[in-house]
Design goal:
By secondary structure, this protein is α/β, with parallel strands linked by helices. It contains six helices and 13 strands. The protein is elongated, with a radius of gyration of 23 Å. The protein binds zinc ion.
């Protein structure tokens, strides 16, 4: 069992923590942390404790956060933030990761996860640093504090305003956490191996529901879809349900079914 304590710091309304245009730091942090937690649900034996208020309404105190992580007996702690320099727009920027001075566990975590964030954010690499922050000092487990980018950077803010960038960063962080703990990805269905259909006719309709009249979109020869519901009878024929939620004929004249 891997126990992960993760937090987006602060609260939505914490004074100061905003861009020169008034966007809130917590909102940026939250997108990364929420995506990371969602992605970790795809792994076995991952137990996650979120340290901040997921609604953003309250600013959970630093000592409440570290006490919660310690009581949870977390294996690692990740505090996710975005930086600020002067509070006015400037040309500085970049990603940096902190651990407590002299903490070998924290240092190892930073070396593991900092490059992942740099890679995902595509901002300047400001490196791994040490600081006597409460979250790093008072937590009993290896802990890092990540600053994904600068809220008052004219370059960084462009990446930070992209929901897909923040979401992908969280997902990449979760994958790195899973790798760190050697967690196994949950299998999507029974039996372990996935089932697929490949289109073997020129083009073919899919259906919005299990109804031959409820046509959705056309798919083409060579396209492959993951089957999420095995062949079942619909009217005079058979259908599969595929991963997008759509339905498709199970007639072997048009589709080839296989396990992979
Ligand atoms: Zn912060």
């Amino acid at each position: 069992m891997a126990k992960i304590a993760i937090g987006a710091g602060h609260g939505y309304n914490t004074p100061g923590k905003r861009t020169p245009d008034g966007e809130r730091e917590w909102s940026f942090n939250d997108k990364v942390v929420t995506a990371a937690i969602d992605e970790l649900k795809n792994y076995e034996n991952a137990e996650v404790l979120r340290l901040d208020d997921r609604t953003g309404k309250t600013d959970v105190s630093l000592s409440t956060r570290t006490t919660a992580a310690n009581n949870f007996d977390a294996d690692i702690l990740i505090s996710y933030h975005h930086n600020a320099n002067t509070g006015n727009w400037g040309s500085w920027g970049g990603t940096e990761t902190y651990h407590y001075p002299g903490s070998s566990g924290g240092s190892a975590l930073a070396r593991e996860f900092h490059p992942v964030i740099v890679d995902a954010m595509q901002l300047r690499d400001r490196g791994i640093k040490t600081a006597n922050f409460h979250m790093l000092r008072e937590s009993a487990m290896p802990a890092i504090l990540i600053e994904g980018g600068f809220m008052d950077s004219t370059t960084d803010i462009k990446r930070m305003r992209s929901n897909s960038v923040l979401k992908q960063t969280g997902k990449d962080l979760a994958k790195a956490i899973a790798e760190y703990f050697n967690l196994k990805r949950k299998s999507s269905g029974g039996g372990g191996s996935k089932e697929y259909v490949e289109i073997i006719t020129h083009s073919l309709w899919t259906y919005n529901s299990a109804d031959w009249d409820d046509k959705a979109v056309i798919v083409n020869e060579g396209e492959v879809f993951t089957v999420i519901r095995d062949k079942f009878k619909v009217g005079g024929g058979y259908m599969y349900q595929i991963k997008s939620g759509l339905y498709i004929t199970a007639n072997p004249k048009y589709v080839r079914y296989y396990k992979g």
